Amino acid sequence: MQLYVFPPSPNSLRCQAVANQAGIELELIPVDLPGGAQMNDEFVALNPNHKIPTLVDNDFVLWESTAIMLYLAQKGPGASLISEDLKERVTVAQWVSWTTAHWGPACRIFAFENLIKKILSIGDPDPAELARGKEEFALFGAVLNDHLKGRDTLVGSSVSLADHAAVSWLVHAEAAGLPLDGYDEITRWSGNILGTDAWQQALATIPGQ
């Protein structure tokens, strides 16, 4: 299987971590987003959205990181990441959806303003956007922090797709300037998840790591 990635991307890394946990060996194909490689005809034929990650499994092409994670979780030879319990499965889906709709966008504001703008040399952080980000982060950070009290994982007793999805936005927490002071449960949980072999292998693929 081939996974087209932008190595530092949280969406790429979460798919890699799931593959690692599931026991799937991926051929990683870097896509030079700053250089505009996502606009090439060859890549657009795979993903008309011009986005990464994109998975190619023989003649099957799949895009959107949450769909790719689900595919990998069920395809892998390793221990299943999908619970047989219905309520647990839909609760995992709930947290993955929450990450997509709320947590990710809140974290993305800081990543764009404090990190991506610097990398691409496209201006200084926008104070108004950072203020909006702080409001969003305070709201959804509290939800996550409260839920994690007394828990090592978001759902059940083992690392699930929910953990991989949510923790991916904390990979660049320091560089992005995420306001994590006071969110002790998030800090504890994220340190444990990012310290797993699955995530350490994924993080090792980032150039310079």
CATH top level assignment of the largest domain: Mainly Alpha
The total domain count is 2
Element string (H = helix, E = strand): EHEHEEHHHHHHH
Shape: globular
Count of alpha/pi helices: 9
Radius of gyration: 17 Å
Structural summary, described in words:
By secondary structure, this protein is of the alpha+beta class. It has 2 domains: 2-80, Glutaredoxin (3-Layer(aba) Sandwich); 86-200, Glutathione S-transferase Yfyf (Class Pi), Chain A, domain 2 (Up-down Bundle). It has 9 helices and 4 strands. It has helices at 10-22, 41-46, 65-75, 86-120, 127-147, 161-167, 173-176, 184-194, 197-203, and strands at 2-5, 27-30, 54-57, 60-63. The chain has a 4-stranded mixed sheet with strand order 2-1-3-4, covered by helices on one side. Strand 1 (2-5), helix 1 (10-22) and strand 2 form a beta-alpha-beta unit. Helix 1 packs antiparallel against helix 6 (161-167) and helix 4 (86-120) packs parallel to helix 6. The chain is globular, with a radius of gyration of 17 Å. It starts with a strand and ends in a 6-residue tail after the last helix.
